[in-house]
Write a structure and sequence with these properties.
single chain, alpha+beta, 6-stranded mixed beta sheet, 6 strands, binds 2-acetamido-2-deoxy-beta-D-glucopyranose, Genomic scaffold, ProqFM164S02
Length: 306
């Protein structure tokens, strides 16, 4: 059979339109916009600049984020997944915004990006962030690996963060406490930290979780539950049924007690619960957009939501 070039020319737009349509609907929930390396570097720096204290305070205020897309999806390996702008601003910025408040790592005061590569609308970076761990009286470097996808407006559509060496960090903090209190047994330092955190959480409960938001009958039963009933938690258990998880969520209670009080309560409110095992955590299908630039690898990306 023989086609005139005119006939083929008529078919081509239809074929390419079909191809584009199928790529669009399969690989991306957000309109993709390809950025240059320079633009992605600036977007990455913009995020970390806003993460530092006291710039992060501004991100906890107001209705809409300059950083996150309204329907942002986020995951942090030592905790769990977090949906939407409001929750993510409370979590990413609000968690590290008060140097006076008891906390594990305190407030971020400086950062250095040590590894960075970017393509399309996705950036991957390693950032060493110096935290002023005011509760422990040390400046501590924390290494955070991030993957960030930006939407067409340059806002974060998805992020996936890993706290590198977090178990080592936790051990380091506890060892510092052991030295400070002249502990003769390892458990003493953990008990000291548990007392510090439980006292802070129960104070917050007392202050903000009243009426229908109340989780514990009184401060004594709160303290008792947090130091005796629930486990302290390992480095990967900041999103499980532990004291460390309740310490994370305690910082968010002040923003929306109706949402966050249950997370520090005995039931864990769906956030401090043992709902997923190792296999489920590692194989969780969560993200709506692919993490591989230019539409590559869609056949094997097991982290994409169905
Ligand atoms: C911001 O939130 C306040 C109270 O929550 C509301 O009154 C106001 O209309 C909101 N503004 C915008 C621009 O959505
Ligand atoms: C992700 O996809 C699910 C299922 O289509 C949808 O319900 C959800 O709103 C999407 N989330 C985002 C952030 O796009
Ligand atoms: C990172 O860089 C800044 C400025 O270049 C510096 O002040 C800071 O101390 C560095 N180190 C860390 C670990 O943040
Ligand atoms: C760390 O925080 C303490 C207590 O707020 C403060 O006195 C100290 O100056 C801070 N250190 C740095 C390097 O910001
Ligand atoms: C720990 O031991 C040192 C030196 O023996 C002492 O000066 C300090 O007061 C002790 N600290 C505590 C909390 O017991």
């Amino acid at each position: 059979m023989h086609f005139h070039s005119g006939q083929l020319g008529f078919l081509l737009p239809i074929i390419s339109a079909c191809l584009f349509a199928s790529v669009e609907s399969k690989s991306s929930e957000h309109p993709r916009s390809a950025f240059t390396f320079d633009q992605l570097w600036k977007l990455e720096k913009g995020f970390w600049d806003s993460f530092l204290y006291p710039a992060n305070l501004k991100q906890t205020q107001g209705n809409a984020s300059t950083i996150f897309a309204s329907d942002v999806q986020g995951r942090v390996d030592i905790t769990r997944t977090f949906d939407g702008d409001e929750l993510n601003r409370e979590y990413i910025f609000g968690l590290f915004a008060d140097p006076e408040h008891v906390s594990l790592v305190g407030v971020p005061i400086a950062y250095n990006i040590t590894q960075f590569t970017a393509n399309d609308n996705i950036a991957s970076a390693t950032t060493v962030v110096t935290f002023n761990a005011t509760s422990f009286g040390v400046l501590i470097p924390v290494t955070i690996d991030t993957w960030i996808e930006f939407n067409a407006d340059g806002k974060i559509a998805q992020y996936d963060a890993t706290f590198r060496w977090f178990e080592y960090l936790l051990d380091f903090l506890v060892e510092g406490v052991a030295t400070k209190i002249n502990a003769t047994e390892p458990d003493q330092a953990v008990a000291y930290v548990a007392d510090l955190l439980a006292t802070a959480i129960c104070d917050t409960h007392e202050q903000h979780c009243t009426g229908s938001n109340q989780q514990y009958t009184d401060t004594a039963s709160c303290y008792d539950f947090l130091t005796k009933t629930v486990r302290f938690g390992k480095a990967h258990e900041l999103g499980r049924n532990t004291l460390l998880c309740r310490e994370v969520h305690e910082h968010m209670v002040q923003y929306r007690p109706d949402v966050h009080c249950s997370h520090i309560g005995p039931g864990g409110g769906g956030y401090c619960v043992d709902d997923m095992d190792y296999m489920q955590t590692v194989l969780q299908r969560y993200f709506n957009d692919s993490w591989i630039p230019f539409g590559y690898g869609t056949d094997q990306n097991i982290w994409l939501a169905d």
